[in-house]
Amino acid sequence: MRRRKRMMEDLDRDIRDHIERETEDNIARGMTPEEARYAAFRKFGNVTRMKEETREVWSLVWLEQLLQDIRLGFRVLRKSPGFTAVAILTLALGIGANTAIFSVINGVLLSPLPYKNPKQLVVIKEHDSLPNVIDIQRQTRSFSQGGGINVEKMDYIGATEPVQVRVALINAGFLETLGVQPMLGRIISPGEDVQGGPRLAMVSNHFWQNYLGSDPHAVGNTIQLGGNSYTVIGVMPASFAPPAEHADVFVSLIVRDPGAGAERDLHFMHTYWRLKEGVTLAQAQADMATIDRRLAEQYPAEEKERKSQLVPLHEWLVGDVRSALLVLFGAVGLVLLIACANFASLLMMRAVAERQELVIRAALGAGRGRLIRKTLTESLLLSVFGGAAGLLFAKWGTSMLLALRPEELARLSGIHMDTRVLLFVLVVSVLTGIVFGMAPVWIAARADVAGALKESGRSTTTSTMGHSIRKLLVISELAVALVLLVGAGLLIKGFSRLRSVNPGFNSANVMTMYLQLSTTRYREIPKQTQFRRELLTRLNSLPGVRAAMVTDIPLGGNYVRHRLVIDGRPPVAVGSEPLVQTLSVMGDYFHVMEIPLRTGREFTPLDREEQPLTAIVNEEMVREFFPHENPIGVRICWAGDAGPPQWMTVIGVVGDVKHSGLNQPTDPAVYSPFSQNDEAWRRFMTLAIRASDASPGLVEEVKKQIWSMDGQIPVGDVHAMDDLVAVSLAQQRFNMLLLGLFAALALILAAVGIYGTMAYAVNQRTHEIGIRTALGAQRRDVLRLVMRDGAKIALFGIASGIAGALALTRLMTSLLFEVKPTDPATFAGVAILLALVALAACYIPAHRAMRVDPMVALRYE
Hints:
By secondary structure, the chain is of the alpha+beta class. Helix content is about 55%, strand content about 15%.
């Protein structure tokens, strides 16, 4: 390559000199400078053409040499199937694991959102009400469009049995903000999104296919939702889904529920906004702060503590998943480093073994560049084959990741093998082949023809230095493995502590199912109460069954909060009253869920309509609002109610329940009887059924009892309470399993690396061991000799790994539960485990060295 470059440079210089001399001669003959220059170029045009032809020849020669190197590389790898298989498998494990995680990162973090100009979309983190959304639209200077959504379950009549579908309650600006157009029909117009407007519906592609039979003429048909008829005006495309939501049908909130749509303090909508061209997030946040102040001044009772925080939509969607995925990607990158270190070690051992061949090639005239290109070609072939095999591992690994995925993992539909993933594999494979193939290239470049031809091959400077490099590679492998093992150990310890958290109830043998009464047939509270009471009577008469009701089941992740007033306390400003979780119950709920009663009494059948209002609070509420007094007998009421206060007397205190998650704090909570609630909109409820045994027919029997009372009430979200507890642990389990898997893989690869290094060292020192044995060394002396070298490598690797782990595990703080990233017990346990594995890997070649026959060893090589 350098020789060709020098030849081309010399040719360029000669042509320039000839042209300059000819130009000067032409000027001397009386030509103008322009004519002289032109004539000189004409005369030496053939030289220029020769130069271009030379370039073409050199290109063809270079291409022919490259093809020759590739063919030679194939032949060499085919002659060593064992070495080739091990090298490809080592790389395939590392590249495959990285590709699988990168596929998830690509789908969740890197792929653009499926909306128009997604970088302009922002979300307000706090929920809001429809009147506030309308006011923001009128006052904003930063947003071109905005809208809100709340998804609730409604009954759909039209299937073989009544079912619950997820209905998105939206305003007219929601779909326009996302820039979505229906596949068929149209969307709701602003003129139709008003109180008393027509009942119109847009259906999802899934609903259209499964419930409307993919009818191309579905637009104009009517469907029954929640006891009302809706006209289908549009079918959404298959690629569309609301951000972080799943919805089957889209209807107007103000048309569906005028009362809830008009309540300013009913903050239950996720709101999304599109920034105007040229407006930054900081400018929009400042504009939003101004609007917040205006709303707080205008509506102090509802909005006094209003403080909206804008977040880019993509950032809001990925949430905490981003940090977990990046930690996992970093972990799997370390696994790739270990695999590459083993790959480099294999190449170095092969290069040392083939050094005599390289020397002979050099003696026959092969240049150093030619030798380097041959060695690097073999490395690249192995890495490309490893990348191809890694794609197969990645396909399997991605399927496994999706099977293990937690519910919080957003944008699952975007996880697949696309061009970006294939490019990632190609780049990683080529870089691996080049970077980690440089070690044998260095050996090839240092080939000394004269010196090597004189060597016996038993001990050379190059092999000694190569062995030192392999030791460094193994030390690095052990250090990286320790970092991963410490990370996995911390997650395992945190997960163990999370599982030991008391949820506040007993989930064993409890089934839950969601019901919602129709707005048309159960508009009045007495009808709702009558249905609940009769249903519980029927269910509790079933053998071995105890049943009760609650508005929101624990670990459901959703509940209503209200502001509270405590009788006898100094008054506070309107809108500043404390917020507490509110739950309505019926039946022997606390016994069914086995939530302990701490003091006072539970609800009885006497706590019913037209009786003094009662309430039960949890321990967290006592700690926060009654730290030094007995709450029994204290009166509380809801803030903001019109008319005289409706005081409830606290009659009992129950244990805390983890409603939002086992790793989340407990909120103050107030329980009240369904029959005493003056809230007709609480038509939803969750049945909690504790059975003496897990009878497979229990769910069908419950459905039969419900449909015998009202055949149009769907039963949905049927879950065992144990499954809900498991779902709440899904994200932590996902992180723990993956990092644990990567750490185990790293441990295996590191053990293989130290075994290979020590086995090679024993092989190289066979002659020395034979001499020692012949001079009287005992087997234990040989064992001590080999194990001492292995122990040194392990010690340096563990020490380096501890230093790296102390620095890197701090990045995992957000993933740990009640565990410090520098937990001494975890560090000590992992160090001992890695030391034992390393010593076990050293013992096998040490045991082989103990059995060396001195006579055979002295004739070695």
